[in-house]
């Protein structure tokens, strides 16, 4: 089985700046792998343990995004693809999904594509399903359990708002996995040494079949961020002792307008 895992490098801090277009300025800040993608990687590794095959990893970003591909190598993945081009910058979910789909076409044919449920810097949970639509393959989101891997299909358990559903989907397909589907393993120091110089294949827009610049980056993004800012931090605290604490708490919540006072 050939599996592709899509991952992303996200800011490792809330102390980030934005440019005039509302895009995060990623250079010069601490970065890490998107936490949800660790579960996607572990899912691919668990499937390989029973089905065999090869796992590739792909990300879109500036050259520094190679770091998360190196981390994926340290967890046991086989091949890495970096989609990097200044013309990809400023992409919304639609342009990002299209770029990843073009990258997947260029990287080869895959039986299964796995994405994390969402990213911590966007939280849209839309990129995986949109990517599948561009690839014209079936997809299942919110997967919480791999029930069975068959020769031509995979059986999945997915978490809906009020129910748990079991579905069977044929290959090739794309799934997005929930946090906690498996416990992600730690990167291996042995694999770090072994894969230190392992090749990472880079693709730019010129490598894609569709070279229309209006489909990528800021030009291909129909939505624009109106405002973005780091969350305000409130570290003030009080310690209350004595009697009638329940009444005092109630009055405090009313004053802060978290609740309304009974008439």
Q: CATH homologous superfamily name?
A: HUPs
Query: Do you know the CATH topology?
Result: Rossmann fold
Which residue ranges are poorly predicted, with pLDDT under 50 across at least 5 consecutive positions? Answer: none
> From the structure provided, what is the oligomeric state, counting identical versus distinct chains?
single chain
Largest sheet: 9 strands, mixed
Query: What is the class in the CATH system?
Result: Alpha Beta
What value does the Rg take, in angstroms?
A: 22 Å
| Overall tally of domains | 1
Mean pLDDT: 90
Helix/sheet category: alpha/beta
Using the alpha-carbon principal axes, give the shape. Answer: globular
- The largest sheet has its strands arranged as 11-10-9-12-8-1-6-7-13
Identify the CATH architecture.
3-Layer(aba) Sandwich
* Number of DSSP strand runs: 13
Q: Can you walk me through this structure?
A:
With 263 residues, the protein is α/β, with parallel strands linked by helices. The chain has a single domain, classed as Rossmann fold (3-Layer(aba) Sandwich). Helices cover 26% and strands 25% of the residues. It contains six helices and 13 strands. The chain has helices at 35-51, 66-75, 93-107, 127-135, 189-194, 245-255; strands at 2-6, 9-11, 17-18, 24-25, 31-33, 54-60, 79-83, 112-116, 139-149, 153-159, 164-170, 173-177, 201-203. The strands form three sheets. The chain has a nine-stranded mixed beta sheet, sandwiched between helices. The protein has a two-stranded antiparallel ribbon with strand order 2-5. Strands 3-4 form a two-stranded antiparallel ribbon. A hairpin with a 5-residue loop joins strand 3 (17-18) and strand 4 (24-25). It is globular. The termini are far apart. The mean pLDDT is 90.
């Amino acid at each position: 089985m050939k599996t592709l895992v899509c991952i992303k490098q996200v800011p490792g801090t809330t102390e980030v700046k934005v440019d005039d277009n509302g895009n995060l300025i990623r250079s010069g800040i601490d970065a890490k792998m998107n936490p949800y993608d660790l579960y996607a990687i572990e899912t691919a590794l668990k499937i390989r343990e029973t089905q065999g095959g090869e796992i590739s990893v792909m990300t879109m970003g500036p050259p520094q995004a190679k770091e998360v591909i190196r981390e994926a190598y340290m967890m046991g993945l086989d091949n890495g693809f970096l989609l990097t081009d200044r013309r990809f910058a400023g992409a919304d979910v639609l342009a990002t999904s299209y770029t990843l789909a073009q990258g997947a076409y260029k990287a080869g044919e895959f039986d299964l594509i796995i994405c994390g449920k969402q990213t911590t810097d966007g939280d849209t949970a839309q990129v995986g399903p949109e990517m599948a639509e561009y690839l014209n393959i079936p997809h299942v989101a919110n997967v919480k359990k791999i029930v069975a891997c068959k020769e031509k299909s995979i059986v999945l358990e997915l978490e809906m708002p009020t129910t748990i559903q079991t579905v069977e989907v044929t290959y090739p397909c794309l799934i997005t996995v929930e946090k906690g589907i498996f416990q992600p393993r730690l990167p291996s120091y042995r694999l770090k040494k072994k894969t230190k110089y392992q090749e990472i294949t880079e693709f730019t827009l010129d490598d894609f079949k569709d070279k229309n610049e209006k489909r990528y980056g800021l030009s291909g993004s129909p939505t624009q961020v109106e405002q973005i800012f780091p969350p305000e931090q409130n570290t003030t605290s009080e310690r209350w002792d004595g009697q009638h604490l329940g009444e005092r708490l109630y009055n405090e919540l009313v004053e802060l307008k978290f609740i309304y006072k009974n008439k």
